Amino acid sequence: MAPALALRVESLATSGIQSIPKEYVRPEEELSNMANVFEEEKKKEGPQVPTIDLKEMESEDEEVREKCREKLNKAAEEWGVMYLVNHGIPNEVINRLKKAGETFFSLPIEEKEKYANDQGSGKIQGYGSKLANNVSGQLEWEDYFFHLAFPEDKRDLSIWPKTPSDYIEVTTEYTRHLRGLTTKILRALSLCLGVEEDRLEKKVGGMEDLLLQLKINYYPICPQPELALGVEAHTDVSLLTFLLHNMVPGLQLFYEGKWVIAKCVPNSILVHIGDTLEILSNGKYKSILHRGLVNKEKVRISWAVFCEPPKDKIILKPLPELVTETEPAKFPPRTFAQHIQQKIFRKTKEGLIRNTIQEEPQTIEHKQTLQEDSAKCVPQ
Ligand SMILES: O=C(O)CCC(=O)C(=O)O
Ligand SMILES: [Fe+2]
């Protein structure tokens, strides 16, 4: 069967259309708080995503380190997302990584198509756009490039961009730094949870099995940003997600019942607690709902690195040390693949209900195809 052809959002955006095709128009209930991102970003009032200064984590003074861990713990409990500053990754490396992604996306679409993924046949790495799932037909205003970046022996460098010529070198350098930072954060969070310092790192597979997957999100200019979403509301399935962007605002976090825009904090990396960590921590840490807005003026690019446990090798469930009689396990055991599958299944069901399609026979059919599909989906 020929691969399903995805329409690139970039080609739509540059075609001169004044209104967006109906597949990109979000349903009424999603259209709240989609005000102008640039004005929102300037506002001083309202809740602000916490900032963790990692220099304090390295202090010689145990009291300073302890205070920093307390802040990290609070941020992970209350928000499930935070900015990391003084994270130790050289600015020069980050700037080169961004430049490489921008250069790739500035190539003509025909050039990028040479790297197109084929989601239907399970080839999920490469250049892509969301395919309409047949439930709601709903699409997102973004194209992306997705590939595994760590461990290095699991990478398929043949599908990485060849332009710019330093793409592999700078991405490798960034991911090595990020892998070190992942260990640092996992050690601190383990201590915050009151378990052995290397508990989380070992639980999720350590250096050999914990995967870092890079997704460069490319959000073209949108003629009707008040009707579209770059990325629809979701929580990340990962353990942690690290996020950089080109300083164009767009990320919104659902905090205390309201959408809050993430400020552009220079030299910071934003980190999300994902579902995997929410499960391991028995719900102490939250995987926050978030989405990506688009705008009329500037292309937005973000670099998300998802730290994920292997798909089938590890059973995810609350760490036994955190389960007590008064705090029973809040999540039944599952593999990472099963977790993704259950999530897609729930979403499909919601879509079916929304579209008032007869539920029973369709649901069973979808469940079957989704079981096959769960291993082949590009995370958000
Ligand atoms: O672009 C962003 O800021 C968010 C992207 C995101 O949530 C994702 O890729 O999972
Ligand atoms: Fe996300």
TrEMBL record:
<comment type="similarity">
    <text>Belongs to the iron/ascorbate-dependent oxidoreductase family.</text>
</comment>
<dbReference type="InterPro" id="IPR027443">
    <property type="entry name" value="IPNS-like_sf"/>
</dbReference>
<keyword id="KW-0479">Metal-binding</keyword>
<dbReference type="GO" id="GO:0009813">
    <property type="term" value="P:flavonoid biosynthetic process"/>
</dbReference>
<keyword id="KW-0223">Dioxygenase</keyword>
<feature type="domain" description="Fe2OG dioxygenase">
    <location>
        <begin position="210"/>
        <end position="309"/>
    </location>
</feature>
<keyword id="KW-0847">Vitamin C</keyword>
<protein>
    <submittedName>
        <fullName>Putative anthocyanidin synthase</fullName>
    </submittedName>
</protein>
<keyword id="KW-0284">Flavonoid biosynthesis</keyword>
<dbReference type="GO" id="GO:0031418">
    <property type="term" value="F:L-ascorbic acid binding"/>
</dbReference>
<dbReference type="InterPro" id="IPR026992">
    <property type="entry name" value="DIOX_N"/>
</dbReference>
<dbReference type="GO" id="GO:0046872">
    <property type="term" value="F:metal ion binding"/>
</dbReference>
<dbReference type="Pfam" id="PF14226">
    <property type="entry name" value="DIOX_N"/>
</dbReference>
<keyword id="KW-0560">Oxidoreductase</keyword>
<dbReference type="InterPro" id="IPR050295">
    <property type="entry name" value="Plant_2OG-oxidoreductases"/>
</dbReference>
<dbReference type="InterPro" id="IPR005123">
    <property type="entry name" value="Oxoglu/Fe-dep_dioxygenase_dom"/>
</dbReference>
<dbReference type="GO" id="GO:0046148">
    <property type="term" value="P:pigment biosynthetic process"/>
</dbReference>
<keyword id="KW-0408">Iron</keyword>
<dbReference type="GO" id="GO:0051213">
    <property type="term" value="F:dioxygenase activity"/>
</dbReference>
<dbReference type="InterPro" id="IPR044861">
    <property type="entry name" value="IPNS-like_FE2OG_OXY"/>
</dbReference>
<dbReference type="Pfam" id="PF03171">
    <property type="entry name" value="2OG-FeII_Oxy"/>
</dbReference>
